[in-house]
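Input record (one chain):
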Amino acid sequence: MPICNPVINNPLVVIGGLSLTEMVKYEVNYSKLWKDADRNMNGDVSATFIGVFPNIDAETMPLKQAQVQVLCAALDQPYFSATFWDPATGTQKTAQYYASDYKITLLSRATGMYGGVSFSIVPVSKR
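The corresponding structure, as predicted from the sequence alone:
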């Protein structure tokens, strides 16, 4: 079941087949990973560059309980394929990811309305 606006053809994120198009927040953080970093007495850095890892922080629009459950099931998988909009290249990219933390905001338990789900997904490998 997609959590999206059918008018928008390309979702911002697809997590294990679950399409998410309309987001309250969508940020791609390009984290640079270094190994054996050291600074000498002259202040010069010596390090081995591992690569750039595009971490994604996002928050959905308000959702109903059934939609929250579907998204949680996708995020609870140990690893999943994620296709995301990459602002650096202006294209969709697909890679293996895992979910870090996610937070669910409850608006009304009686109506089953949630304010949205905010989540972070982290790539398994560098881009």
